[in-house]
């Protein structure tokens, strides 16, 4: 299809598609004439992915570019790729933070190894600091409650990875982390509402 | 304390405090002289809360203002207040969306009442649409997996509300929804990492 057809099929304006092309986020189509390039289903898929990350997920373009670079990297190591993917998600904090005592203490309480270099460690530190600043409770029992909710979920989420190639696993893990998060939050908000109504 | 001491105690620059005052987000201190006002611990708390919502949570100032207005409203109904609070969190979508078929279908599969007017319904719709655009899976079994993780958690989170006044319950529910979300996401990211390393 031509770029105008790609625009129609994706619902994304031509000017935006041209911007993605200039930024290297979208691969150029096959040139078929001096002023004409042909786009295929892989381009349509890519435009959908960019839309999901910028639109629904609301990530800044620079972060979307980082995520695309991770999944385009053929030789990526899964854990390293997941670390880079997580660093492209909010909260955006310097890694490692000068002190991440709260997160380290939580990790100890949960019996998990603490790696201050892993971006999610500094993100946990920032999240706990946010609770503290807002006067909301955080202690080992509360940490356990959240950990017990996310660990079995994370296990089910990552199960398909065992039958994937490294490249597939990276894309699945990085995109899955980013794009199931809004689902989890929306369902938790709906659960709160349902429970509050029963009050 | 004077505004300069409030700045020192909170770590927030005087110019920012003055901005909060102008915007009505922070109550003016007790005027003790023509050019002097006295601030107390409630001001320090409020500055911490604003910092948690803008900094860690990364909410736009307009949304922080909305959240503060909700918790400052003395006669708020809990469910209505939670709805307004949720609408101040991303993803920002028009409520109700023209169609929220995906979210309605998920709600049916989970056996929960679907209210398209509740902001989290449109947010769920947007989240599922994001998965679809990125080519990630969503079906009733997957929905059930997420619901089973968030519902018991939401129940534990809302338990303290039963012994609170309406006003306390509103602040707890609205701030808790906003500020435990980054904790949940950070812990899920850490759980993924731990499981990927075991792969």
Automatic annotation (TrEMBL), chains A, B:
Gene3D superfamilies: 1.10.1660.10. The keyword Nucleus does not apply. One of its GO terms (molecular function) is DNA binding. Residues 1-70 form the HTH merR-type domain. SMART domains: HTH_MERR. SUPFAM superfamilies: Putative DNA-binding domain. It holds the Pfam family MerR_1. This is MerR family transcriptional regulator.
């Amino acid at each position: 299809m031509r770029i105008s057809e790609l625009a129609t099929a994706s619902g994304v304006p031509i000017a935006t598609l041209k911007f993605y092309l200039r930024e290297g986020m979208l691969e150029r189509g096959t040139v078929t004439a001096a002023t004409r390039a042909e786009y295929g289903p892989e381009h349509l898929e890519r435009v959908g992915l960019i839309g999901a990350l910028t639109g629904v997920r609301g990530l800044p373009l620079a972060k979307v570019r980082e995520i695309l670079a991770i999944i385009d990297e053929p030789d990526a190591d899964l854990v390293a790729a997941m670390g880079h993917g997580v660093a492209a998600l909010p909260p955006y904090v310097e890694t490692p933070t000068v002190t991440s005592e709260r997160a380290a203490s939580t990790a100890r309480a949960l019996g998990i190894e603490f790696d201050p270099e892993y971006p999610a460690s500094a993100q946990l530190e920032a999240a706990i600091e946010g609770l503290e600043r807002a006067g909301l409770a955080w202690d080992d029992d509360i940490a356990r409650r959240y950990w017990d909710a996310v660990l079995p979920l994370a296990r089910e989420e990552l199960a398909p990875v065992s039958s994937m190639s490294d490249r597939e696993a990276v894309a699945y893990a990085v995109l899955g982390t980013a794009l199931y998060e809004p689902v989890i939050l929306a369902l938790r908000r709906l659960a709160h509402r349902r429970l509050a109504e029963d009050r």
